[in-house]
Design a protein that fits this description.
Blueprint: H1 2-23, H2 30-37, H3 41-47, H4 58-72, H5 79-97, H6 100-112, H7 125-139, H8 149-169, H9 176-189
Helix pairs in contact: 1-2, 4-5, 5-7, 5-9, 6-8, 7-8, 8-9
């Protein structure tokens, strides 16, 4: 039953963000989202109070991407390379399916919401996968001593959000993926134990 409800909610979220990207947030109606998702108005309002409530749901879409990556990621990659791969795949998805304006609106809702801040929810697939890769790296001696799994996970998530935020305030004037290909290795190098490969 829970899986089915997640599928319905997921269909609504995916359809909404597809339409937001294609025709803009303001030009998308709840009726169009319901039609695109193949669900019902009742289902829509069961999960969301209205269209505005969908703005904070982008993190669900990101988590769907991470679930896919968890299954397809090459297990022979080093923990650092896994983190770089996860970042590139997410940013590629953002560049291809989420407009700068929508990402700005997501950050705005997370800054002003009095409810749950989905981006920071530690139960997200994003954080679970990050912790898993970080634990592997710590056990294999990749990361500096004295840094906990939570320290590394938090630092990575903060840096990644910082890259997205900068892209937003720069109005998407550069490639998010290309910028991350330069900046993310520099950041991860700071977490790496010097003798680790």
């Amino acid at each position: 039953m829970k899986k089915n409800s997640r599928n319905t909610k997921g269909k609504i979220v995916s359809a909404a963000w597809k339409l937001f990207y294609e025709q803009g947030y303001d030009n998308t109606t709840v009726e169009e989202i319901v039609e695109e998702s193949g669900t019902s108005r009742g289902s829509f309002y069961h999960y969301f109070e209205g269209k505005d409530a969908l703005l904070s749901s982008l993190s669900y879409l990101f988590d769907d991407k991470y679930e896919e990556l968890e299954k397809t990621m090459d297990p022979t990659l080093s923990p650092i390379d896994k983190l770089l791969y996860m970042n590139q795949e997410l940013f590629l998805m953002i560049e291809n399916t989420v407009s700068v304006e929508l990402l700005c609106q997501l950050f705005a809702t997370q800054l002003t919401t009095s409810g749950e801040r989905h981006l920071l929810n530690p139960n997200r697939t994003y954080y679970k996968l990050l912790r898993q890769v970080t634990m592997e790296g710590q056990k294999a001696g990749f990361f500096k001593d004295g840094l906990s799994v939570n320290d590394i996970t938090r630092a990575y998530a903060m840096f990644e959000r910082g890259l997205m935020y900068d892209w937003c305030i720069s109005s998407g004037s550069y490639s998010l993926c290309q910028q991350a290909q330069i900046m993310m290795p520099l950041f991860l190098e700071g977490l790496r134990k010097k003798e680790a490969n």
